[in-house]
């Protein structure tokens, strides 16, 4: 690993830990000394966890550790020594093994900083769209993409956000159109094979709840509908006027279904999980879940990230979020 000028400062909530986190090769790096400070643990504890992580094949050493020549002072002597640095995959794995408040804080920071870079970066671009040409806009989005890639890429949310950017270039090109407030609505698939029935959906949610509760991943609050909100969401996606569907395509219905469940908090708990499940179920039943090459149009990580983006969006961004999802679903290659 070469020395880098790309450094981001991490400070914990209480200001007790302040680390200069190096950015290199699309990830972040901390030395063992920094890991000890971050997690408030002795060197022997950190070393033992690292050895166990490699021993249990949770991570591969070759891809998670790098050596960097670092200048150290020993007495009056200036000595250059090779110091081992560990990337974000190792940092996150250690965080899950080390039971400390600092570990939890860093995990949250590692996820949130990436989300903020995407959302704030895109919002910043939106302010410039009306004044810039397409080439400059494309370059700006490329900078946002690179900024994200040089941050924390270990969590599923992080990788999913990158999937959305990297795998759906057509969608992002549309988002970068000359007019900052316009994203073309695509025609979509109008031949509907499956209608999501309220009772069937509630039964499916009940089955998910049983499975999750048996694993300790949900409580009794999971899937409890709030004042008919879910029924209202279904009515919304199947609304008609003069006998014509207001949302004519399957893609539009699916996108709105995901949005309404997550954003309107249709259930007491589990909105993102339930919304994502019914979204995928709806796509599968209507035969539009896969591209022509048999790859899923939205993979697991991208689905997690879409749910995250919907939950984080402003109410005024509903149309943008729905059109983003519709455009992703319209990718066929």
UniProtKB/TrEMBL annotation:
It holds the Pfam family Virulence_RhuM. SUPFAM superfamilies: Fic-like. Residues 1-121 form the Bro-N domain. Residues 196-327 form the Fido domain. It comes from the Bacteria. This is Fic/DOC family protein. The lineage of its organism: Bacteria, Pseudomonadati, Campylobacterota, Epsilonproteobacteria, Campylobacterales.
């Amino acid at each position: 690993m070469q020395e880098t000028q790309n450094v981001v400062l991490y400070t914990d909530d209480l200001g007790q830990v302040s680390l200069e986190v190096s950015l290199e090769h699309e990830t972040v790096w901390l030395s063992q000394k920094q890991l000890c400070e971050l997690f408030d643990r002795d060197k022997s504890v950190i070393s033992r966890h690292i050895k166990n992580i490699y021993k249990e094949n949770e991570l591969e050493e070759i891809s998670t550790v790098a050596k960097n020549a670092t200048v150290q002072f020993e007495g009056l002597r200036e000595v250059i020594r090779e110091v081992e640095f560990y990337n974000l995959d190792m940092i996150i794995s250690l965080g899950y093994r080390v039971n400390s408040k600092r570990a939890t804080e860093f995990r949250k920071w590692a996820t949130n900083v990436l989300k903020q870079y995407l959302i704030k970066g895109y919002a910043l671009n939106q302010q410039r769209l009306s004044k810039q040409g397409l080439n400059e806009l494309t370059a700006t989005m490329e900078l946002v993409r690179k900024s994200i890639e040089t941050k924390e890429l270990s969590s599923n949310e992080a990788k999913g956000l990158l999937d959305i950017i990297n795998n759906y270039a057509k969608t992002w090109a549309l988002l970068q159109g000359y007019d900052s407030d316009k994203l073309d609505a695509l025609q979509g698939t109008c031949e509907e094979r499956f209608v999501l029935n309220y009772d069937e959906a509630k039964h499916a949610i009940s089955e998910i709840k049983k499975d999750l509760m048996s694993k300790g991943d949900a409580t009794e609050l999971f899937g409890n509908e709030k004042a008919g909100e879910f029924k209202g969401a279904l009515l919304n996606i199947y609304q008609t006027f003069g006998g014509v569907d207001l949302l004519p395509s399957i893609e539009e219905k699916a996108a709105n279904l995901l949005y309404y469940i997550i954003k309107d908090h249709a259930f007491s708990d589990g909105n993102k999980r339930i919304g994502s499940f019914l979204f995928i179920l709806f796509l599968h039943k209507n035969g539009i879940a896969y591209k022509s090459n048999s790859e899923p149009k939205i993979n697991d990580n991208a689905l997690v990230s879409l749910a995250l983006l919907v939950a984080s969006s402003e109410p005024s961004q509903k149309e943008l979020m729905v059109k983003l999802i519709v455009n992703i679903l319209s990718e066929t290659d």
